Amino acid sequence: QVRLVESGGGLVQPGGSLRLSCEASGFTEDYYGIAWFRQAPGKAREGVSCIRTSDGRTHYTDAVEGRFTVSRDNAENTVYLQMDSLKPEDTAVYYCAAEGICGPWTVGGAAVKYDYNYWGQGTQVTVSS
């Protein structure tokens, strides 16, 4: 049974940091890319970051570039999202997803949508003073 379990969310003050974890289990084949998405109340879900399992290449959406870092621990089947310099607008439920294409989130100024086959249950991140 394929499972993705996120953890690490919480309440943090603006300028603070959090590290999210996504533990994957049950995959019998390479799960290609693992991505982090987020959805704020009243807004559409958006891609935040992704990492390719084949070569570790990463992509970030412009809103988090330079502040967030995605990494992986293949031995632990875990992907991390280190979030620094957090802003109130980063408040959202964060989801990890697997088995999808990891590529640029925008091309020519237009958002690119990628389909992922497996999703975690989400973890709440709240940035507030």
The total beta strand count reads: 13
Largest sheet, in brief, is: 7 strands, mixed
Strand content: over 45%
Low-pLDDT runs of 5+ residues are: none
Return the structural class: mainly beta
Based on CA atoms alone, the radius of gyration comes out at: 14 Å
Overall, the morphology is globular
Helix content: under 10%
Average pLDDT metric:
92
Q: Could you give the order of the helices and strands?
A: EEEEEEEEEEEEE
CA distance, first residue to last residue: 40 Å
Count, helices: 0
Question: Any overview of this molecule?
Answer:
The chain has about 130 residues and is mainly β. Helices cover about 0% and strands about 50% of the residues. It is built from no helices and 13 strands. It has strands spanning about 5, 10, 20-25, 35-40, 45-50, 60, 70-75, 80-85, 90-100, 105, 110, 120, 125. The strands form three sheets. Strands 2, 4, 5, 6, 9, 12 and 13 form a seven-stranded mixed beta sheet that branches. Strands 1-3-8-7 form a four-stranded antiparallel beta sheet, with no helix packed on it. Strand 7 (about 70-75) and strand 8 (about 80-85) form a beta hairpin. It is globular and about 45 Å long. The termini are far apart.
